[in-house]
Amino acid sequence: MNNTYKLYGSVLKGTPFAEITNGEAYIPYSEDLSVLGTKVNIGKFISSNSIEYQPMEGQDALTDGSPSPQTIARYTSLAKGGAGLIWVEAVSVCEEGKSNPYQLQITEKNLDSFKTLVQAIKSACIEENGFEPIVIIQLNHSGRYSKPTGVPAPITAYFNTDIENEPKRIITDDELKALPELFSKASKLSILAGFDGIDIKACHGYLASELLSAFDRAGIYGGSFENRSRLFKELIEASFSEISLDNIRAARINVFDGYDSKYSFGQSKNGLYDLSEANMLIDIIKKNGGKLLNVTMGSPYRNPDVSRPYRNGLDKPKSDAIFALYRLWNGAKEIKRKHPDLKIVNTGVSLLGALSPYAAAGAVTEGMTDFVGFGRMSFAYPDLARDILTNKFDSKKVCVACSGCSTLKKNVLPSGCIIRNDYYKKVFQNFKKEQG
Ligand SMILES: Cc1cc2nc3c(=O)[nH]c(=O)nc-3n(C[C@H](O)[C@H](O)[C@H](O)COP(=O)(O)O)c2cc1C
User: Fold this and answer.
1) Which domains, and CATH codes, for the chain?
2) Which residue(s) pair with 88 in the sheet?
3) Whether the predicted pLDDT of 276 surpasses 90
4) Is the C-beta atom of 405 inside 6 A of ligand 1?
5) Going by C-beta distance under 8 Å and a sequence separation of 6 or more, which residues neighbour residue 181?
6) Nearest CA to ligand 1 atom 25
């Protein structure tokens, strides 16, 4: 794809982002950051502001899946930061679907440790900011990216000839049929733990997401949209019906994979996204009482440039990265237009660093989204939301979009900001030393 385009919007005027070529990529801008203090209703819940902290796996849980003291400290610090909506990272529904040995996993046995986590989040935010945040848990099976003992143990949706020469373990129909029960159990436990809502994750190439592109899979989970989305539908039905309508029913979905492959969900013929099947997934979510949708694209494993645009050590983002952010935000905007009854979270803003609050304010002002989601930025600058809303935003504390946190994640190390946080900086330095 030829990513040449014209950038407009005052965020780009006279700023390092003004890499103007031809075409079109709109990033909104507003200097009135107070708009980020707009409250958002989700059913009976009210978020105190329009800032969301995205799910970010920290890889610091105990091996039985419970949050460790380090996990709790990380979330306490995030909660003090004052986002109205805190989306807790991917939590596995089973041992073999863990993305790493230190991923969270909710079970009957460790339920109390999750209660402690939720309590810590809520009380830290109330104490520091005077309001209770909305806390969502993300439930997942890592599928192709399962690594429960630290060694890859992929469980794939199909033999993807574009990325592998030989088939890996392909999950059977019978195994898929057993998954809704695991998700519904985890959903029930999550509400008992005190979470306000649950997210059924179908993004970034993990199992439910990968099945959406199982065009060639034989049987009832492959081929037609109805078959490819069967697992997702069953997970949504089983999990949402397990929790009260008073709880928030949410999902994080890939509306576009963007893989250079014949197996790519949401692909249009011109290389851009086609949201028609994503809209059908959203209809499933809504039909089952879904109220909140976190819109994302791409995969951190296969096309991180689509999923979390980064700078690669550059002072300013390259035009491709700006285009990727435009695509993420525009996709979310189109979904918001089509489904005004859903509350939407968009993603990718950390790319913009010191300018991200202004672009976020622009997005909310223009009704492109209900929440602006901050991922890597929340690792770098946990106090961001509070600082924005109390006029204390400090551009020296921002994420530089180097994606060093992802390097830690990839190497099964505790993940956090290697630039702004001394602990993770050390972890990164030691890792580099060991590598020679
Ligand atoms: C270290 C790391 C861990 C992540 N963990 C999760 C996760 O648990 N669940 C999820 O849906 N996305 C996860 N993501 C993706 C982020 O939520 C977000 O979509 C991405 O970083 C882009 O947003 P940003 O530009 O604000 O960082 C992770 C990203 C990184 C870098």
Assistant:
1) 28-397 (3.20.20.70), 403-436 (no CATH)
2) 137
3) yes
4) yes
5) 238
6) 348
